[in-house]
Amino acid sequence: MNLLMVGTTAPSHVHPGLAVIAELVRRGHRVTYAVGERLAPLVAPTGADVLAHRSVLPTADEHWPQDVAQARHVFLDEQAAVLPLLEEQARPDAVLYDIGGYAGRVAARRWDVPAVQLSPAYVAWDGYEEDMAEHEATVAAGPSGRRFAAALREWLDAHGVTDDGEAFLGRPSACVVLVPRVLQPHADRVDPDRYVFAGPCPDPSRLTGWAPPPGDDRPLVYVGLGTAYTDRPDLYRLCLQVLGEDHRVVLASGKVDPAALGPLPRGAVVARVQPQLDVLAHADLFVTHAGMGGAGEALWYGVPTVAVPQAVDQFLNAETLERIGAGVRLEAVEPGALRSAVAAAHACAGRVRALQGEALTTGGPVHAADAVERLVTG
């Protein structure tokens, strides 16, 4: 089959599906992957043909809008620019698209071909709209919410899509969920005919062979807040100060210059970016923002978490990790709270190993590619 994948130019949206794309290519499918130029090097090793474009989404050094509707508008601006590029391509047999790649859904309708969403986040459950109604009403009532709704309606009308805007951005017709089912809120209320859980699919090409220096048997704690919400020097200094005596600390500082964190404790390794999968393979604990990618990878590698959610879905992810016994949430950025959270998270190790076994046997790129093939053919 000829497949067109419409991605979102953000590492947290690209990384979760790369191994799935590579598996589809390995099976003989031709995949064309549309993504912003700066992330094209991430996609190229999968064997997909990269359809690179200029992206208006914030880079790792830039900040996302804090206003929810403004952030949604940035995604819309990106997709409005991408759609004409898609329409220049030959008609594929099916379209795959990220949750932010909804130009793919529009293009699939115009071509009259199947469309399957690849979701790196939890999905809507029966009753989701009612549960979120108050939040969505607040977003829609503000000036930015009204501007976004008008712009979305105008864009959909221009391309012959008569669906309600909120419904169009909501439930897909078919979706492969790149999340362990255990991390899905209200999993018992998710439509199994629409959503297929394929669990996390860590990309082997991200492995670098990194290993911690030998000769130090202290537990290894990895501190990483993803790629978007990393401007937290206060948290980084606290982790180095509190954990540096009894743990080996590996810290990804993101937007923060490592030099700004001051003298490092014995054995600490700090850099703006760390090889996350390699580090998790050696880690005993993960201090994380609870983005779904990192949460799923923590289960895949069997690492308990201390969650410090920053934005969007991370708060619910943190609640879910705690509810299933995979870790705890840091309630306050202060020494006593961190020590207590770390001790409680270490105590979750046995439960996390059990969850790891479930993730390894029910998820992965082979499961995800099987689901894609089944959904696009029928």
UniProtKB/TrEMBL annotation:
Signal peptide: none annotated. Transmembrane segments: none annotated. GO terms for molecular function: hexosyltransferase activity; UDP-glycosyltransferase activity. Pfam families: EryCIII-like_C. Keywords: Transferase. InterPro entries: EryCIII-like_C (IPR010610), Glycosyltransferase_28 (IPR050426), UDP_glucos_trans (IPR002213), UDPGT_MGT-like (IPR006326). It comes from the Bacteria. GO terms for biological process: antibiotic biosynthetic process. Residues 245-343 form the Erythromycin biosynthesis protein CIII-like C-terminal domain. CDD domains: GT1_Gtf-like. Belongs to the UDP-glycosyltransferase family. NCBIfam families: MGT (TIGR01426). This is Glycosyltransferase, MGT family.
